[in-house]
């Protein structure tokens, strides 16, 4: 905080007492980013790789994090299951002696969390380390937020917003420097909110696919956020139908509806973990006697 105040004071003093100072440098920087922002697709790819490169460059200062809190260990446990080809494990015979935070042992040995974050960690584990999944998912989140902002704002303002997200969240927040951040859920929300303005203008199959993909991510990471995002996407008026857009409109409706049905009724993780596809693994955790009354389970 103190460093930020010093930087702000320096910039204010420079602009007040020496306005021409650095004018040429700042103009060159502004022109470069303006040209980059004008190329929307290249800009999205550039900020994705820039997030990865910048975070790797500061590894000597902010090394690969170690898990500290129970939530992180739960996600890593679930990621290890996925990386070994399992959705969950059978109940442990010594479950009564191994009870820990946020881990369920019945009807299966798993965790209470939705699987999307753990899928990203499992991908990282397969590539060498779970944190690689955090790095890739957070970089994808920044790129998706830029793509979302491009649908609502002018190109330069969209790039500025994405750069702020990169600096504030993708480099120095716990979303990048832990194993229980919200990058995966934010990625899904950005895809949903970025598809809305595009579908209002032109009904393209690509945007419908990204909308459905975002819905699936939210359903497997933040189901409550899915409710509000899906409500916004379904209530937003789209472009007037035409012969050229009729097939895209049908694809949009089909894929969006199919994504919601899949997310609600065909979640394989919930089906295996809790025996019911619509039964959240949160329920056995927060309805257990140790949570509601503070009583410990009976040990045989």
Describe the structure in brief.
With 300 residues, this protein is an all-alpha fold. It is built from 14 helices and two strands. Helix content is 66%, strand content 1%.
Report on this structure:
There is one protein chain. The chain is an all-alpha fold. It has one domain. Helix content is 66%, strand content 1%. The protein contains 14 helices and 2 strands; from the N terminus they run ααααββαααααααααα. Strands 1-2 form a two-stranded antiparallel sheet. The longest helix has 23 residues, at 130-152. The N and C termini lie far apart (54 Å).
Tell me about the biggest sheet? 2 strands, antiparallel
- Helical fraction equals 55-70%
- With helices defined by DSSP (H or I, 4 residues minimum), what is the helix count? 14
Protein structure class: mainly alpha
Strands, total number? 2
* Order of neighbouring strands in the sheet with most strands: 1-2
The rounded Rg comes to: 23 Å
Low-confidence stretches: 288-300
Euclidean distance between termini CA atoms: 54 Å
Q: Which of globular, elongated, flat, extended, rod-shaped describes the shape? A: globular
Mean pLDDT: 81
Strand content: under 5%
> What is the chain-wise order of helices and strands?
HHHHEEHHHHHHHHHH
What count of structural domains?
A: 1
């Amino acid at each position: 905080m103190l460093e930020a105040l010093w930087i702000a004071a320096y910039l204010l003093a420079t602009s007040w007492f020496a306005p021409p100072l650095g004018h040429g440098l700042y103009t060159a920087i502004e022109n470069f980013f303006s040209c980059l922002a004008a190329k929307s697709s290249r800009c999205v790819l550039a900020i994705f790789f820039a997030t990865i490169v910048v975070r790797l460059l500061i590894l000597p200062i902010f090394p690969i994090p170690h898990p500290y809190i129970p939530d992180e260990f739960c996600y890593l446990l679930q990621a290890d299951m996925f990386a070994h080809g399992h959705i969950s494990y059978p109940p442990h015979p010594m479950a009564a002696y191994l009870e820990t935070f946020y881990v369920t042992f019945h009807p299966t040995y798993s965790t209470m969390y939705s699987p999307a974050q753990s899928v990203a960690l499992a991908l990282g584990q397969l590539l060498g380390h779970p944190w690689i999944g955090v790095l890739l998912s957070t970089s994808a989140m920044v790129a998706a937020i830029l793509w979302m902002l491009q649908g609502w704002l002018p190109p330069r303002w969209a790039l500025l917003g994405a750069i702020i997200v990169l600096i504030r969240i993708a480099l120095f927040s716990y979303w990048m420097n832990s194993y229980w951040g919200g990058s995966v859920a934010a990625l899904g929300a950005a895809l949903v909110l970025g598809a809305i303005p595009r579908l209002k203008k032109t009904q393209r199959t690509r945007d419908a696919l990204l909308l459905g993909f975002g819905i699936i991510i939210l359903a497997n990471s933040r189901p409550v956020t899915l409710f509000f995002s899906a409500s916004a996407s379904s209530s937003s008026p789209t472009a007037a139908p035409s012969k050229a857009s009729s097939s895209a409109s049908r694809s949009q409706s089909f894929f969006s509806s199919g994504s919601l049905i899949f997310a609600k009724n065909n979640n394989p993780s919930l089906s295996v973990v809790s025996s019911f596809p619509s039964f959240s693994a949160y329920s056995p955790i927060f309805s257990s006697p140790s949570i509601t009354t503070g009583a410990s389970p009976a040990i045989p």
